[in-house]
Design a protein that fits this description.
It is a single chain. This protein is mostly helical and 124 residues long. Helices cover 58% and strands 3% of the residues. Helix 1 crosses helix 3 and helix 2 packs antiparallel against helix 3. It starts with 16 loop residues before the first helix and ends with a helix. The N terminus is likely disordered.
Length: 124
């Protein structure tokens, strides 16, 4: 009965498993950062040293900072980097065969590795 399944490659709104895995990991990270660390206004927290980029830090080590940095990259920077990649691909000529999509995918792979490297430390 698999003949009735849609071809995911033909559906731009339904990314392949690789992209879904990437976004799922960062979605879970976002839940951790937004719910566990929680955003706060810099003016309302008495312990300014316990804040990082507007989030509360629960530990003295850098794991919370790394999680916040990764989340803010995913939430704020990745959409612009993706749009720039799309513009570069559209402007690509045979004289300039730079694989912008591969460059972006390599960068996303590195960010995912960074997330995987800290995952076990986030919930202890």
């Amino acid at each position: 009965m698999t003949d009735n399944l849609p071809d995911r490659q033909e559906e731009p709104d339904n990314p392949d498993a690789n992209e879904r895995l990437f976004h799922a990991c960062f979605s879970i990270l976002g839940e951790f950062v937004e719910q566990e660390l929680g955003t706060t206004s810099q003016g309302y927290d008495k312990e300014q040293s316990r804040l990082y980029r507007g989030y509360r830090l629960h530990s003295a080590n850098d794991r919370d900072k790394a999680a916040i940095d990764l989340w803010l990259w995913y939430r704020d920077d990745l959409p612009g980097e993706t749009a720039l990649c799309d513009r570069n691909i559209a402007a690509m000529t045979p004289d300039n065969p730079v694989d912008h999509e591969q460059i972006l995918q390599n960068f996303k792979d590195q960010k995912l590795r960074d997330l995987i490297n800290i995952r076990r430390q986030l919930w202890i």
